[in-house]
């Protein structure tokens, strides 16, 4: 069986009509690839459309403020991607005159662009013969060839990259083949060779797939590295003054939600009660005589799961007798980029 021919034939019949696929312009391709890191297509597509509408060119994105970019990105997670996206757009617009690098090795020099993203842009925009290797590719190749190598290891990625390059059509007479092959193998992993319970009965490779023959589909690919989950407890103080204004602060420390806005935060080692939170209200947040009441929204914390952290979040309402200094109005609050858990809280009030 000719793997690449069967794969490409399947792709041409089954591919999704995605907005970044009908172009070789590197700007929307780069934008989509950054967005789809750690994000499923169904979730990422509306964000892509919003971004391409707000910032139709790399110059538009470069000229935007970081807050505008973060606000549009709100809810997509992994916000360092948005910050890197913005900084790279500024570099391309200012230093490169709006012209994207045209080779894999040059694309790798861009901030936020790793091996996978560089390969995707290089092949999709410029038809460079360079394979993409993401989770879909690991899954398809490990199952088809029965490769039980640990995909958490860098040495395994090198082996899979070499195998994908060997399989990739390189015929000069069909310059689009590298791009089509890369799209095809990722699409096959996304639609057919899915992580759990793939329907192998309708798979075009079911007569040749070694994992299917050996009843190993459910155990491949192999990934040994287990992610350590950290538990954190966030207590947000939601100030409400007689004008309806509140208090927010910018999260300037490195880590999650960098440069997003949030309510004043008390982080604890475990879930705490009313008395403890009342004793920990930061000095300077409000004068003691201004405090009318402190009460919790709900009885339980909200669990917000990130890839490496579980956040137990509780909101506490502080009502004040006088207007707070530097208060933020409800309208201003709506315009600020905030973590999605805070956005959802605001929307539900």
From TrEMBL:
Pfam families linked: HHH (PF00633), HhH-GPD (PF00730), NUDIX_4 (PF14815)
Cofactor remark from the record: Binds 1 [4Fe-4S] cluster.
Keywords, alphabetical: 4Fe-4S, DNA damage, DNA repair, Glycosidase, Hydrolase, Iron, Iron-sulfur, Metal-binding
UniProt key word Iron-sulfur: yes
Transmembrane segments: none
GO molecular function, one term: adenine/guanine mispair binding
Cofactor: [4Fe-4S] cluster
Enzyme Commission numbers on file: 3.2.2.31
InterPro entries: A/G_AdeGlyc_MutY, DNA_glycosylase, HhH-GPD_domain, HhH_base_excis_C, HhH_motif, MIG/MutY, MutY_C, NUDIX_hydrolase-like_dom_sf
CDD domains listed in its UniProt record: ENDO3c, NUDIX_DNA_Glycosylase_C-MutY
Top-rank taxon: Bacteria
SMART domains the record matches: ENDO3c (SM00478)
A GO BP entry: base-excision repair
Catalytic reaction list: Hydrolyzes free adenine bases from 7,8-dihydro-8-oxoguanine:adenine mismatched double-stranded DNA, leaving an apurinic site
Domain HhH-GPD: 35-191
Described function: Adenine glycosylase active on G-A mispairs. MutY also corrects error-prone DNA synthesis past GO lesions which are due to the oxidatively damaged form of guanine: 7,8-dihydro-8-oxoguanine (8-oxo-dGTP).
Family: Belongs to the Nth/MutY family.
Name under which the protein is recorded: Adenine DNA glycosylase
Native source species: Flavobacterium crassostreae
